[in-house]
Specification:
Helix content: 40-55%
Mean pLDDT: 83
CATH superfamily of the largest domain: Glycogen Phosphorylase B
Number of domains: 2
Largest sheet: 7 strands, parallel
CATH architecture of the largest domain: 3-Layer(aba) Sandwich
Shape: globular
Oligomer: single chain
Distance between the termini: 15 Å
Strand order of the largest sheet: 3-2-1-4-7-8-9
Number of strands: 15
Amino acid sequence: MRVAFVLGTTSGGTGRHVRMLAEGLVRRGHRVVVLGPRSVEEQFSFAGVGARFVEVAVSDRPHPGNDLRAVLAIRRLTRDADVVHAHGLRAGALAALGARGPWRVLAALGERAGKRAPAALRGRAGKKAPAASRGRGGRWALPRSGPAGGERVLVVTLHNALTAGGFVGLVYRVLERIVAWRADHVLVVSPDLGERMAGLGARDVRLAVVPAPPLQPAKRTPQEVRDELGAGERPILLTIARLAQQKGLETLLDVAAGPWRQGDAALGGSEAAGVGGDKGTWPLFVVAGEGPLRAELERRIEREALPVRLLGNREDVPDLLGAATAVLTVARWEGQPLSIREALMAGKPVIATAVGGIPEIVGEAGILVPYGDVQGLRAAVRTLLEGPRAAERLAEAAARRGREMPDGDAAVESVLEVYGRSRSNG
């Protein structure tokens, strides 16, 4: 089978996921090409696992000229592919325009909106676009031929929710519809994304299998890490996140600001060992990651003397996990975050916001709190730290959950099932 992956700029989980799929498919004898910006090849080395890489400038922001060039490149480079599998909303929309043909897709959008397609959106040689047929939910859609009709199977995996507003948000909502209406299969990393795409008319929506790579062994002892951080005997709450708006780190600073003192009514009024008293005995909040909000976060940490350490990007996450009491995630939205899966594989309890795909990953291995509920997050921390039995129970559940995490082979087999189903139905 000939598989073409399309992805945009990424420095995290999406790139690692595509590399894992490419490696697994090549190992099974399939031919794989990866299309994307040069930066992703430099970081993830798809050629290093046997895939062919071709540079296509799929940017992270709309740009008409660049996007048109990307669409034409995708169309040319995937002409002989059996399957085009795009990752991310922008890559998915550009792949739909490339694999399906921009004129047919744009004409379909016009028809599904109940409008006659503009003349500019008709066939390339001035031919009228194919007659529309009644689609699901009463919408109008161009008839879609399967692989037997000469089209490539189009699969799109969505790794993130739409959070942008204004003009960019409007553009992205159009891209969502292109993906929903023209992809053969849409894979999503959380149930809420699936519900949204199904509501937009996607024909086949299913949860993506996104495994975490095996957790590497720690190179230092927990005490060595604690000494580096200056933690003393304080509990360490570890957050692994990019310093960006989606991660909700202003909420983490609100939590760290306390109060953790004895008699705090909102936290039950009892003092926990190592949690009450002055700030020298409060939990130490440690954040591994870098991003555009660093300066803003640093200013507040310094101004309020918060017990928070921003460590920047780290290559020693297993070491940090070994020293951590628990992993804390306060994001506005997450799909299947690598940081939580790593925490579970390390047997660490999780305190997290109940958003996106987090509840399905955590199960009984942590404490879930609504996004933005500062008092609830403080109470969850207090619950974990007050008694050893709570921490032990959650750690045991985390270790069990970590052992249940799907591996790379499961992810590759899941996409092969999707590819094969579409081809057999063609």
